[in-house]
Amino acid sequence: MPFTTGGQTISDRLTAAKHSLAGSQLGKTICKATTEEVMAPKKKHLDYLLHCTNEPNVSIPSMANLLIERTQNPNWTVVYKALITIHNIMCYGNERFSQYLASCNTTFNLTAFVDKSGGAGGYDMSTHVRRYAKYIGEKINTYRMCAFDFCKVKRGREDGLLRTMHTDKLLKTIPILQNQIDALLEFSVSSSELNNGVINCSFILLFRDLIRLFACYNDGIINVLEKYFDMNKKQCRDALDTYKSFLTRLDKVAEFLRVAESVGIDRGEIPDLTRAPASLLEALEAHLIHLEGGKAPPPSQQQAAQQQFAGGFGFSQPQPTLGDAERQRYIELEQERLRQFEDQKKTINSANPFANDVAAGPAPPTTQPDLLDMFQASAAPAAASAPIDATNPFGSFPAQNTFPATNGHGATPFGYPASHPDDLARMTAQMSLNQQGVPAGWNTTTAAVSSNPFGAAAAPPMYTAPMGMYQQQTYGAQPMWNPAMAPYGQQYAFGQPGQLPPQQQQTIQMVHQAMAAKNAAQAQQAQASSNDPFGL
């Protein structure tokens, strides 16, 4: 057992001190990330190395050679953590690191590695070190042959690399991807063997790689199946072998994911694997037999196979066929249901005393507004052509014509939109309170709500007009003077009290007419209520 101090062995501290004396911060960090402590490399050391890969003044060959040198250590912990550091940089660091490893012929030479430090569990962990080193070597070899990392390429239906690849190149690329997946699946462990931080860290990195690799593998298989019936005989034979090997690897991937779920990896990160039906494989084999001179598969079987993988393994069960008698019976049932619905609708309309009036009334013409003009006014003919209700005190005063717009946005002098149907009644209630000489400081909004027999919500307070005030002699109440406009009497012609533009005078006259119509309608309604024996 080596001597330790503060969790690190004397050998670790001597190696770090040697690099410190040489002035190599990079070498010191690599030594601290690959110590003999049975724990995963520290995050601060990995983050520093990832940052170094993006710095132009850091030598990538020096970094790679220092890590490869650490893999030749006789201690399994140092070798394992050096491989984890290399794997982490390949996944999350700059791609220059992977390019250098792929360009040089350096190999780890760990196929016969056995721990020589004599530590606890060294012999058992040596097996995992050899398997992990084999996968890292295969990952580097894949980058050397394809010039890209399968874990970083685009995936998906639209712009996925393997989903849009040509047939010849696709059939040559998938075997390379299969070799990398096989090397990863050889790292087979049980949940009981994941008993220390070092192997747990490597297992998480392998799990993430497997998810990405299998997604690319799935895209490639879907692309192969979509083009299967357009291939020649040799390509169909290779594609069929590829699909059979895919089904075999699917079971191994499911077993790896079960181990990942058992050790506590979030269930949301584990995909659900769905096997294709056996009929798909039978259709592929029948097509290949036909190309080799055998009996041709039935057209229905070929169409069913194409429909099964057209949506990307979204397989569905075949729909049952219906005869003419059953189809006619379903049509008659639908017609009977439609007739019952129409009868029920007529019954409801006959019980509604207002249904006939609504149905008899002409439909108002509708115009499609221009979506590009967001500030256009509503169509005037639509409001003018609507019939005037005698019981509506505001029926003869359309909202659009009552308050002519003062600007290009259709804003009224009172600040309310001209198209709001309740604004006129709200303003009328406010004006009637002003005519009655309400004392200053009294809450006019509360009084308006209390006089409302329907108990509506409180109306928003009136906005003061931009001109400054309204003529107090007309209303007999407190002037609505805006003190903020007092300093601007010289600039604005209507900024002083007692002045009112002709346009607002016309507006006030319209409001008085609306108020008189409202009072007449209320009196008529009160007289009708007194003559009603039911009190309705």
Separate helix tally:
20
Order of strands, widest sheet: 1-2
Radius of gyration: 42 Å
Strand content: under 5%
What about the largest sheet? 2 strands, antiparallel
Q: What is the molecular shape?
A: extended
User: How many runs of DSSP E, i.e. beta strands?
Assistant: 2
Mean pLDDT: 74
Strand/helix succession? EEHHHHHHHHHHHHHHHHHHHH
Structural class: mainly alpha
Helix content: 55-70%
Determine the oligomeric state from the structure.
single chain
Low-confidence stretches: 1-6, 310-320, 366-386, 393-425, 438-497
Describe it for me?
- It comes from Caenorhabditis briggsae.
- InterPro entries: ANTH_dom, ANTH_dom_sf, AP180-like, ENTH, ENTH_VHS.
- This protein is mainly α and 536 residues long.
- It has helices at 10-21, 25-33, 43-53, 60-70, 76-92, 95-103, 122-146, 167-185, 197-226, 233-262, 278-291, 299-310, 324-351, 355-360, 380-385, 399-402, 423-435, 444-450, 472-475, 502-531; strands at 4-5, 8-9.
- Helices cover 55% and strands 1% of the residues.
- Strands 1-2 form a two-stranded antiparallel ribbon.
- Helix 3 (43-53) packs across helix 5, helix 5 crosses helix 9 (197-226) and helix 10 packs antiparallel against helix 11 (278-291).
- It is extended and about 110 Å long.
